[in-house]
Specification:
Immunoglobulin-like; 2 domains; 6-stranded mixed beta sheet; 10 helices; 20 strands; about 30% strand
């Protein structure tokens, strides 16, 4: 004889069905708050520029206003669906409720004061940052809205492209941009395209890709081996290191230095992996990629000084530099730091960076002395990296002193010559 469900069973079943219905509604609502962004760069070597298209797809008016802070001498020809208003250094786009396109032109070539390029498109290759082509933006959306983005590089025939974002997402050469921490996702970081050569390998949990134009002396295997050798020590200090890293390189007339970006960096083809003074431009930029912090007003020396210090310290820990070589390098930086002018600076270079590295060295020693060797600069560096906001001297001091449990002599104004 079959009997119906008891009162308790019916109650449990009812609650379960209500929970499923609530979950379905919640998921549907979440999907309605998702908007899709397609970035398309069409590279034009003859015009030395890129035609940029940003396509928005959404089920309803989730993304309502986008305000780009653009460079008038860099970006031009804005037009699109909905309302597009161009002012001095701002472009305001109010797209239709169901989405639409914004189209404009972006230059690529950019020369520094010394005549070298830090962004360039040549007849058979191009090397640039995605964040130069798509400027920073502030958006107005429905609360809780998030974006999902992908990118496609349209280039001349026989060109290939490499980005820091991943591999082709589908047969149409679209590449997914994975930046879940961002509401409005942009394609930031270094991008290279053209007749290029690439080498890749895994360094711990990170897929490393090294790419550069053909026949320019780019030492792809040397760079790969150097990164693989030092990644264990680097990841120990910065466990949040990206799971994908792109290193782009080229020869003259590109700038003879190194520049970092999100999950990517640029290194001139002629830069030594280790300089005669024991420092490493490559490791310096890798620390920037790993830590992902920026300096607030007058505090760029903190970011640069920490990167320069760790470029030496990581090599010491890996055995690349002996303790004697490390000590000589720190002595050379100390002498160079003597030429630094007192006071804060917005752009740290040369002697100021050397002074910053020496301060980090002294801070590490004092922290280890005060904690009995339990903590040092590593804990400070990790704490700063966890917070998504610019670094200041006050924040550095507060973080370090919370670890030490007392004020620190190494960060007093008369010791650092900053305040």
């Amino acid at each position: 004889m079959r009997r119906g469900l008891g009162r308790r069973a019916r109650s449990i079943l009812g609650m379960a069905l209500a929970g499923v219905a609530l979950l379905v509604v919640s998921l549907a609502h979440g999907e309605n708050l998702r908007y899709e962004l397609d970035y398309r760069f069409r590279l034009d070597p003859d015009a030395e520029r890129a035609e940029v298209t940003i396509a928005l797809r959404q089920q309803r008016s989730v993304l309502r206003i986008v305000r780009f802070r653009h460079k008038p001498d860099w970006h031009s020809g804005f037009e699109g669906d909905g309302e597009v208003v161009v002012e001095a250094d701002t472009v305001t786009w109010r797209p239709p409720a169901s989405g639409g396109q914004l189209r404009y032109r972006s230059r690529i070539n950019h020369q520094r004061r010394n005549g070298a390029y830090d962004s360039m498109i040549a007849p058979d290759w191009a090397l640039f940052r995605g964040d130069d082509l798509v400027p920073p933006a502030r958006v107005t959306t429905i609360k809780g809205a998030r974006s999902r983005a992908r990118i496609r590089i349209d280039a001349p025939s026989r060109w290939t492209s490499v980005t820091p974002f991943g591999t082709d997402a589908d047969k149409d050469r679209w590449i997914a941009i994975e930046r879940p921490e961002r509401g409005f996702v942009r394609p930031v970081g270094w991008i290279i395209a053209g007749r290029i050569g690439t080498r890749w390998d895994d360094a711990g949990a990170t897929r490393v890709v090294v790419a550069g134009p053909l026949n320019q002396g780019v030492r792809r295997m040397d760079v790969l081996a150097f990164i693989r050798w030092h990644m264990p020590q680097l990841a120990e200090v910065f466990p949040q290191f990206p799971d994908r890293l792109l290193v782009v390189s080229a020869a003259d007339p590109m700038w003879r230095g190194g520049l970092s970006g999100p999950a990517s960096l640029y290194l001139h083809a002629d830069r030594p992996l280790i300089s005669a003074n024991g420092t490493s431009t490559l490791l310096h930029e890798l620390v920037h990629v790993a830590q992902g912090i920026s300096g607030g007003p007058g505090a760029d020396w903190i970011v640069e000084g920490m990167a320069e210090y760790y470029s030496l310290e990581i090599m010491r820990r890996a055995g690349t530099l002996s303790q004697r070589r490390f000590n000589r390098a720190m002595s050379a930086l100390t002498q160079w730091a003597g030429a630094a002018e007192p006071g804060p600076v917005d752009r740290s270079r040369g002697p100021v960076t050397a002074r910053g590295a020496r301060i980090m060295y002294e801070l590490d020693k004092e922290l280890r002395a005060r904690t009995g060797g339990r903590s040092g600069l590593d804990e400070v560096a990790r704490a700063l990296a966890r917070e998504d906001r610019p670094v200041s001297l006050d924040r550095l001091r507060a973080t370090a002193e919370s670890i030490a449990g007392a004020p620190l002599e190494s960060l007093q104004p008369e010791r650092i010559g900053i305040e």
